[in-house]
Write a structure and sequence with these properties.
The complex is a heterodimer.
Chain A lengths: L13 H8 L4 H21 L17 E6 L4 H15 L4 E5 L13 E7 L11 H8 L10 E7 L9 H12 L3 E2 L4 E3 L3 H22 L24 E10 L8 E8 L12 E4 L5 H11 L6 E4 L2 E4 H8 L7 H11 L2 H6 L5 H10 L2 H7 L6 H7 L6 E4 L4 H4 L2 E8 L1 E4 L2 E4 L1 H7 L6 E7 L13 E6 L4 H13 L5 E7 L2 H4 L3 H10 L4 E6 L9 H7 L1 H9 L3 E6 L4 H16 L4 H13 L3 E5 L1
Parallel strand pairs in A: 1-2, 1-3, 3-4, 4-5, 4-6, 17-18, 17-20, 18-19, 20-21
Antiparallel strand pairs in A: 7-8, 7-16, 8-13, 9-12, 9-16, 10-11, 14-15
Chain B lengths: L7 H7 L8 H6 L8 H9 L2 E5 L4 H6 L6 E6 L6 E2 L1 H13 L5 E3 L5 E6 L1 H13 L16 E2 L6 H17 L6 H7 L26 E4 L13 E8 L2 E9 L18 E6 L4 H15 L10 H8 L1 H12 L19 E4 L5 E5 L5 E2 L1 E2 L2 E2 H11 L3 E4 L5 E6 L4 H10 L10 H4 L1 E3 L17 H14 L9 E4 L13 E7 L2 E6 L10 E7 L1 H18 L6 H7 L17
Parallel strand pairs in B: 6-7, 7-8, 18-19, 19-20
Antiparallel strand pairs in B: 1-2, 2-5, 3-16, 4-5, 4-13, 8-9, 9-10, 11-12, 12-17, 14-15, 16-17, 20-21, 21-22
Helix pairs in contact in B: 5-12, 9-11, 10-11, 12-13, 15-16
The chains are: A alpha/beta, B alpha+beta.
């Protein structure tokens, strides 16, 4: 390991690290990495003000949190009233609106009061939908250390009076939290119930917060693994927490936001890294192949020291959607079909690649029948490889989770459904089920020093790592500016993570966004058009040291973007095209122009 | 509420530079399909509301997409009259940029729904090209002036329509903001400083509605208007207008300080005094209306706070003349008369029933296409009614067969077969586009009507005309407080049931049951229909029966009101 590869470190620290680790034995290095990991965890939890003390008690624990969900303002008023009274009583308290409350904090809470209204016949207030949904979901954490009280507001002329308050009260108990006193259910005449509840809540808060002595210092450091326990050949079974379609109605694509749990795996990743996923073939496709070739799926097949049934081979270990040249060649021989042989001639190169882009293995087997035995088939098919997806989350924000943005490749070919193996495997994955995953580091695509500006250019699901970047930089309070250039077909349905970008712009963690929706006007408009329009500004950023990242389609987008960058550097940097190319190559060398394209 | 106690909207108006705000910047923001909150309020004055498809709100939140923002655009069509060429323009606009439907409102105009932000400007510009503006179709100004669509008496309609046009033009905001934002008009440097001589820089405290009725037809619900004008005609000569002030429908659930109110007849003015009188009423409201609490800002509250005589005195002081005692008049109905009628100039008018005023191409119901086909051959004009219906007006007798054939071909001939209640049903838009809706209205009407018809059938009342008004919230776009039967939304599937208005828009209904579901509504009505069928007097209307028989006490105004009439 050399200090130079520690990319997140400011350059002036490189020599210090080199000196620190020089000559240390493995146990010392292991201790050091654990020490640093513990420090990192604590800084994350404590925010920017964390001291250098290795183990100060987090302050959150001696504090009362009042979360409210309010439609008409009553719940807000009561929550604020409680906050004022608690504060006047000398208690540490904060009052947070439900949609401003980060559910990640739940685990750290020790004393929580929830004041929440029920709308109409059992709906949460708009500001609380996400919180209520989160708590009801499988993603809600165990809350054994939490004590709580709930005040529901409602209108008893509805059958489901105070349904939401009641639901939260039950759910928190189910999650292991301790109910301090019975939930209040306030009717239209609020005060009758709310005042006694507030009195009781205040009384309990006094006792609880007084009773909890300062906690013992946290002395255990996270033990770092010298080699990750989980890797490509030994993937972690990660439970899927959320499988959410992100493209709106009318979109011609199905893009999923997936959240997996890494809890207990010890897996760590940095923004820019990828998640490897081992997919499985759909049973329907395996059956179709078996049926077409008249082969018995239960037949035992032994290839290269491994033995499985043919069905298992095909489902777990072989590519069945991607058509490859070796397999095509083998099949051409077996079928004895002259037209296939002809396609393999050098002159047919374009025809063959066109065919590969349309046909899958099954199409070849059906259209040009050929004889295969189970063994020869398994030997000829390409071994199934894991798919790598750019991670769409920052671990400093999502903790034990990892998020992906996956486009479900799903189309009809000659009247039959066709799909991409892994995207279908993921898109059809049920929440709660696990998938075999591992982390694939991508050092070339990591963030620069905090004070550097970055330009992020992503089309379609290429936006994924930039969500991780912006999350990470916001969490770190990085000073550099963040500029996103995003493109997709339609504003209305395909603006991936739209509400998150809007929020990031509002809170200053995203400084600029340029958009290109290709099909919203007569002329097609892509990310490179957005770049060219902002050419002067982009060159200024680059010239001042900004890092530029490109993620997405390798065939067209990345090439068009590169051409646009060359044109911009040539025009605004007053360079010839060759010099502009050379200048950009230099950026690539320096790691300031990074691409993650596929 | 801002520091000086005024409602936030007052600050927005005052800072808007006569309704400009940052609308141009908001329209250009590519990150959102919405406009800023402040601009939202200003946009109304330009005749448009930002809305979103509420059916998709939850789904899109999960998709991390903002709500499906879209815009409603409302035209300014005084008296609800438009030419076939204008009809074809609207038809083109809704099929190009909106949701392929035209919506006739209860204020006699078109509403277009589902226009995306990027198409808003060109939609409004296209309307202006067809010589239809949208300015002041919403907002704290005088809105679209409605006038009796009366297809029976040609001179009466001509008169009501002419006054609606004159009032509309006279009371229009003078700002050039509209032309700059939507029609690319350049500001003239060093020109006359712009001003709003009537409205001032903060416009009115709240919306203001004017309607012109010609007795005996009260199809505009003249007592639901802030300023209702009742034309007094003797021997075919217009003598002048009784003026009624302080009508208004809106209320809030559970807030007794808000209430529907019928206009109070204040006196009579001669035709040449009318414009100045309308202006005077607006001035008093401008200066005395509540600018702190928008719930109490309509003219009806201003009048009830001042007292009617004090209001009258202040009005007369400003006018410099006294109102004459009001003249006798009589209304006998506020619904529409369907089918063909002949005007006294030998031209013919065909009134069609349009359910909830929605013109769309539904399965087996190609109504939008049908009216396009009619507009392509029609030689007269179109009139919308305040009951959301449509009159194909001024048809020469030689064209009647042709129009009839098209009406039949495109299934627009439902009026021939409708039950009494269906002919008198009005519903507001509500879900999924209206931001105020608490329950379904327009989408619920087609489910509710057959169930009501089944009950009416059972009691032999199928052809009995009964005013049914459905509203998704208590604000009252469908004028529900004047329905013999009215449902006012409380939550999805739950309504307040109100009963007992009269048949001519002169008596408010009252609440009978609060927050009940359909089964309870139907049970309640079934019992009352049963009694009505047996106990009614000859020709007695349902609402009148309920009051006479003592089933209901007549509604009283929430406070004691002096009566001048």
């Amino acid at each position: 390991m050399t200090a130079a590869s520690l990319l997140p470190l400011p350059e002036d620290k490189h020599p210090l690290v080199a000196r620190l680790v020089d000559g240390l034995e493995a146990p010392a290095l292991q201790w050091l990495s654990g020490y640093l990991a513990g420090l990192a965890t604590q800084r994350q939890a404590g925010g920017k003000n964390a001291t250098n003390e290795p183990a100060a008690a987090p302050e959150a624990q001696a504090r009362l949190t009042v979360v409210y969900g309010s439609q008409t303002g009553n719940a807000k008023r009561l929550a604020e009233d409680l906050g004022r009274r608690a504060s006047a009583a000398g208690l540490a308290v904060r009052v947070v609106r439900a949609d401003a409350y980060s559910t990640r904090e739940l685990k750290q809470e020790r004393l929580l009061y929830v004041v929440i209204s029920t709308q109409g016949d059992g709906d949460p207030p708009d500001d609380s939908r996400a919180l209520v949904e989160f708590l009801a979901s499988a993603r809600a954490p165990k809350l054994d250390a939490l004590r709580y009280g709930v005040l529901g507001l409602g209108d008893s002329s509805y059958p489901n009076f105070c349904a939401i308050g009641r639901q939260l009260d039950d759910r928190l108990a189910t999650l292991g939290a301790q109910r301090l006193f019975a939930a209040g259910e306030a009717d239209v005449d609020l005060e009758t119930v709310s005042q006694p509840w507030l009195d009781q809540a205040l009384q309990q808060a006094r006792e609880q917060l007084k009773a909890s002595a300062p906690l013992a210092k946290v002395t255990t450091l996270r033990t770092a693994r010298t080699t990750p326990a989980w890797h490509r050949d030994q993937p972690f079974q990660a439970p899927l927490l959320l499988n959410q379609r992100m493209t709106g109605r009318g979109s011609d694509r199905d893009v999923r936001h997936l959240e997996f749990s890494l809890e207990g795996s010890g897996l760590r990743y940095a923004p820019g890294d990828a998640l490897g996923v081992w997919p499985r073939q759909s049973p329907a496709l395996v059956d179709a192949v078996l049926h077409t070739l008249h082969l018995d799926g239960e037949a035992t097949v032994r290839v290269a020291e491994e033995e499985h049934s043919l069905r298992t081979w095909l489902a777990h270990h072989r590519e069945l959607t991607l058509l490859t040249r070796p397999f095509f060649t083998a099949h051409a021989e077996r079928s004895g079909d002259a037209s296939l042989q002809e396609l393999l001639l050098p002159a047919s190169r374009d025809a063959l690649s066109a065919l590969f882009s349309r046909w899958q293995v099954l199409d070849l087997l059906r259209k040009h029948p050929g004889e295969w035995t189970a063994e020869t088939l398994v030997a000829a098919l390409r071994p199934l490889a894991p798919r790598l997806y750019s991670i769409a989350s920052s671990q400093s924000v999502v903790g034990d989770e990892v998020h992906l943005t996956v486009s479900h490749v799903d189309y009809t070919f000659e009247g039959e459904a066709r799909w991409g193996t892994a995207s279908r495997y993921l898109a059809q994955h049920a929440e709660g089920e696990s998938a075999p995953v591992f982390i694939e580091a991508n050092e070339r695509f990591h963030l620069p020093a905090d004070d550097r500006d970055i330009v992020m250019i992503g089309a379609g699901t290429g936006v994924a790592p930039f969500r991780a970047f912006v999350q990470e930089r916001a969490e770190r309070g990085a000073g550099g500016r963040n500029w996103l250039v995003f493109g997709n077909p339609h504003f209305h349905s395909d603006f991936l993570y739209q509400t998150e970008w809007q929020q990031a712009l509002k809170n200053g963690s995203l400084h600029r966004i340029d958009l290109a929706f290709s099909r919203d006007q007569a002329e097609k408009r892509y990310v490179q058009h957005g770049l060219l329009e902002q050419g002067r500004r982009l060159y200024e950023w680059l010239d001042a040291g900004a890092h530029v990242y490109v993620c997405g389609d390798a065939n067209r987008m990345a090439k068009d973007v590169h051409k646009a960058l060359v044109a911009i550097v040539a025009e605004h940097g007053a360079r010839s095209t060759e010099d502009a190319e050379a200048w950009l190559n230099q950026l690539i060398q320096q790691g300031r122009y990074a691409r993650d394209v596929y | 509420m801002s520091d000086n106690g005024l409602s936030d909207l007052e600050r927005i108006k005052a800072d808007s530079r006569l309704l400009r705000g940052t609308l141009i910047e908001s329209l250009a923001d590519p990150v959102t399909g919405a406009i800023s909150e402040d601009d939202n309020k200003l946009l109304k004055f330009h005749g448009s509301y930002q809305q979103d498809d509420r059916d998709l709100r939850e789904e899109r939140r999960k998709q991390k997409l903002e709500p499906a923002y879209q815009f409603m655009v409302r035209a300014r069509l005084p008296g609800g009259v438009l030419s076939p060429a204008q009809w074809l323009s609207f038809d083109h606009i809704v099929r190009t940029w909106a949701n392929h439907t035209l919506r006739i409102t209860t204020r006699q105009t078109f509403q277009l729904h589902g226009i995306l932000k990027r198409d808003l400007k060109r939609s409004i510009a296209a309307m202006n090209e067809a010589l239809v503006s949208t300015i002041a179709a919403c907002g704290d100004v005088n809105r679209n002036v409605v006038a009796s669509a009366n297809p029976v008496a040609t001179p009466a309609h001509r008169l009501a329509y002419r006054w609606a046009e004159r009032l509309s033009e006279y009371l229009k905001p003078k700002t050039r903001a509209y032309h700059e934002i939507w029609l690319d008009e350049k500001r003239v440097a060093g020109g006359e400083p712009e001003s709003e001589p009537l409205y001032g820089p903060t416009y009115l405290p709240r919306k203001f509605k004017i309607g012109v009725a010609v007795p005996p037809t009260n199809d505009v619900d003249v007592f639901a208007q802030d300023l209702g004008l009742i034309a007094i005609i003797e021997n075919s000569e217009l003598l002048g207008f009784n003026i009624a002030v302080g009508g208004g429908m809106g209320a809030s659930h559970g807030d007794a300080s808000t209430y529907p109110r019928l206009g109070s007849v204040l006196g009579f003015v001669e035709p040449e005094q009318l414009l100045r009188t309308a202006e005077g009423v607006i001035e008093v409201q401008r200066d005395y209306g509540d600018r702190k609490e928008r719930k109490h800002a309509r003219l009806k509250y201003t009048i009830d706070r001042m007292g009617l005589s004090a209001f009258k005195a202040e009005l007369e002081r400003r006018l410099g003349f006294s109102l004459q005692p009001s003249r006798a008049y009589r209304f006998d109905h506020n619904g529409d008369r369907y089918g063909w009628t002949e005007g006294d100039d030998g031209r013919w008018h065909l009134t069609l029933q349009i359910e909830s005023g929605r013109l769309a191409d539904g399965p087996g119901q190609p109504h939008l296409s049908g009216l396009r086909a009619i507009a392509q051959v029609h030689q007269g004009d179109f009139r919308m009614t305040c009951n959301q219906n449509l009159i194909i007006a001024n048809v020469p007798s030689t064209q009647r067969d042709r129009i009839d054939a098209l009406v039949t071909e495109y299934k627009l001939d439902g009026y021939r077969r409708l039950s009494g209640i269906r002919r008198h049903a009005v519903a507001c838009v509500a879900l999924p586009t209206c931001g105020l809706a608490m329950a379904e209205s327009e989408r619920y009407l087609p489910q509710l009507l057959p169930r009501l018809e089944a009950l009416l059938d059972r009691h032999g009342l199928r052809d009995e005309p009964i005013l049914l008004r459905l509203s998704g919230c208590p604000n009252g776009c469908s004028r529900p407080y004047l329905g013999e039967i009215a449902l006012i939304g409380r939550a999805i599937g739950r309504y307040d049931l109100r009963l007992g208005a009269d048949f001519a828009g002169q008596r408010l209904n009252r609440v009978v049951r609060e927050n009940i579901d359909e089964a309870e509504i139907l049970a309640e009505l079934d019992a009352l229909f049963a009694r009505y069928a047996v106990e009614r007097h000859d020709d007695e209307r349902f609402g009148d029966f309920l009051v006479r028989s003592g089933v209901l006490a007549a509604a009283r105004h929430p406070i004691d009101v002096e009566v001048f009439a």
